[in-house]
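User: Can you recover a sequence for this backbone? Please restate the input before giving your answer.

Assistant: Of course. Working from this structure:
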């Protein structure tokens, strides 16, 4: 379902406001889905192989009714998931926050002052 012209303009305004307020957060939202980190491709490949071998072992265990084959297969499946998740997550260096400049907080401080004033009015006058 397409958005109306008014809705598209509102959406664009909200995106601009978000990007102006916190550009790092806005750029992180624009990224599409999970990506494989450059040095972590081997983790994904190892994880997929372990996952497939583990599933094969679990199915073989079910068919042959042998629990001894199923337990290591299940552990291989879990290991595969761990390796895949490790390869898909964002690199640690990029995930650590960098120190930001101190911004002018007048907008937030005015907001907090209004909240404090309302709180005092409620406590004193009772609503």
């Amino acid at each position: 379902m397409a958005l109306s012209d008014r809705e598209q303009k509102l959406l664009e305004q909200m995106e601009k406001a978000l990007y102006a307020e916190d550009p790092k957060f806005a750029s992180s939202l624009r990224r599409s889905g999970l990506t494989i980190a450059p040095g972590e491709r081997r983790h994904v490949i190892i994880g997929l192989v372990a996952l497939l071998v583990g599933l094969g072992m679990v199915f073989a265990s079910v068919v042959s009714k042998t629990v001894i084959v199923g337990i290591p297969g299940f552990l291989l499946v879990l290991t595969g998931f761990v390796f895949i998740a490790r390869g898909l997550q964002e690199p640690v260096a990029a995930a650590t926050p960098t120190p930001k400049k101190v911004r002018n907080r007048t907008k937030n401080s005015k907001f907090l002052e209004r909240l404090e004033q309302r709180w005092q009015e409620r406590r004193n006058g009772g609503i």
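That completes the design. The first helix runs from residue 5 to 21.
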